[in-house]
Structure formats: C-alpha cells, structure tokens
Write a structure and sequence with these properties.
This protein is of the alpha/beta class. The protein has 5 helices and 8 strands. Strands 2-1-5-8 form a 4-stranded parallel β-sheet. Strands 3-4 form a two-stranded antiparallel ribbon. Strands 6-7 form a two-stranded antiparallel sheet. Strand 1, helix 1 and strand 2 form a beta-alpha-beta unit. The longest helix has 17 residues, at 78-94.
C-alpha cells in the first residue's frame, strides 16, 4: 500500500481550493491500491487557507524546533503542521506503507524543493515537515515528479 497526497488524487484540498491531479495516482486510489491523505487537513487546517512557508530552515529544522512554519499573514502555524505530520506518520505505519508520494514544494509535503520563506515564489533545495518526519522514521517519500522512477 502507498499513501499519496490528496491533491494529487484530484481532491480540491490545496491552500487555494484547487487540486494537482495526477491521473495515474487517482487511478491507484480508485483501485484501492493507494490511500489519499492531506497532512494539512489532518493538522486542522480548512480549505481554502493562507499559503504558508518554512522560515529559518527546512522540515528537519522544524522538527528540531529551530525553524517554524508561518502563513502569509505572519501567523505561526508550526503546531498544525507538526500535528498533521504525526497523524500522517501514524497512518503510514498503520497501513505498513511501502512508499509515500507527496506534492512537491508544499510546506508539509515537499520532498526535494521548498519555498524559501519570503513568499516571493523562490524555491530552494530542502524537504518539508511531513517528509522529514516520515523519512526520520524510515519511510520512503518521493514526489509526484519522481514516483515512477
């Protein structure tokens, strides 16, 4: 079983109420070969919501308490991102997930690139909160860009 970001399965759960449909991922969910999760919704966010970025580091730094996740208004939303990450980890462990495919660039799901924390659309190498926690616990995480490789 694999876990996939809900937005990749066509669910309109992104911060702006859209999805990032990947038809192959949606097919896996429809065939009960994958389970869709949204760490941000699991953390207590609603849709739509303000965009958020990691300030002061990456996902590992958020887990270590040396960086935080802040929305565009300046509100610290780190606790909600951590809550969603831990619920996603529990779900992955419960299902004995062999792989997790998460949406690249998201502050909760990005596995290779993140926004730099300035809300100007600039990306830097790094991973996000849920990805960092899953990898710390030995779970393979990849993005929609690399999952078939």
């Amino acid at each position: 079983m694999i876990l996939v970001s809900s937005c990749l399965a066509g669910m309109k759960v992104r911060y702006n109420g859209t999805d990032c449909l990947d038809e192959m991922i949606q097919k896996l969910v429809n065939e009960d070969k994958a389970i869709a999760v949204c760490p941000e919704l699991l953390g207590g966010f609603s849709t739509p919501r303000e965009p958020a970025e990691i300030i002061g580091g990456n996902g590992e730094d958020v887990l270590a308490g040396t960086a935080k996740v802040v929305d565009r208004s300046g509100t610290d939303v780190t606790d909600m991102y951590l809550k969603g990450a831990y619920i996603t980890l529990a779900k992955a462990q419960e299902l004995s997930a062999t792989m997790v495919v998460l949406k690249e660039n998201s502050p909760s799901c990005g596995s290779a690139m993140i926004y730099n924390g300035e809300f100007k659309g600039k990306k830097i190498a790094g991973n996000c909160v849920t990805t960092a926690l899953l990898r710390k616990n030995g779970i393979e995480v990849t993005s929609e860009e690399n999952w078939l490789l």
